[in-house]
Amino acid sequence: MNDPQPVKKRSRIQMRNRKRILDAALEVFSQHGYRGATLDQIAAASGLSKPNLLYYFDGKADIHVTLLNQLMDIWLAPLHEIDPDGDPLDELLHYVHRKLEMSRELPRESRLFANEILQGAPRMTPHLDTVLRPLVSRTVAVIEGWVSTGRLAPVDPHHLLFSIWATTQHYADFEAQVRVLMGDTPVYPGAAEFLDNLYRRLLQPRD
Predict the structure, then answer these.
(1) Cα(173)–Cα(170) distance, rounded to whole angstroms?
(2) Domain 9-57 falls under CATH 3.30.750.24
(3) What is the pTM of this model?
């Protein structure tokens, strides 16, 4: 039986070109969605030729799935950080603020994920089922434990998480609308204060 061939390490030029392609694709996909994006657009944005793109990736779907897989690791990190042994209110408010920071710092990534979900998650369903579902189930159990011991006000954990995602990611996914409606008013300081008050009032245990 032959030993498996070792995976050839990519050169610095190859890694740099892959990063250029993925950065360009993120911009194109976040603007046009998967269906509206083309390899020609990604090639133009990356400054590389279309044949060069196809040297590094098998096609548009391969680029898109690579971006989504990278995004899921980043996107789920704050959920992993929730400490079951921490103060419930502090842990959940920290999660709210982390998600809001990500909307400010990673708006294109948020729109990429939103576009995939709006299309029925054709390329992400396995990831949602095998990665997101167990993580959410773990978090739901932690929140239910906090509620049952009186450390949090009664709340449905699933709808709490959906609400946090909606209220934080709105600022990225609807950035153009928020910018028009807010004008010159800084968005994120007010958003952070409002969401902190909103969830603190919702989750603070009642005497």
Answers:
(1) 5
(2) no
(3) 0.84
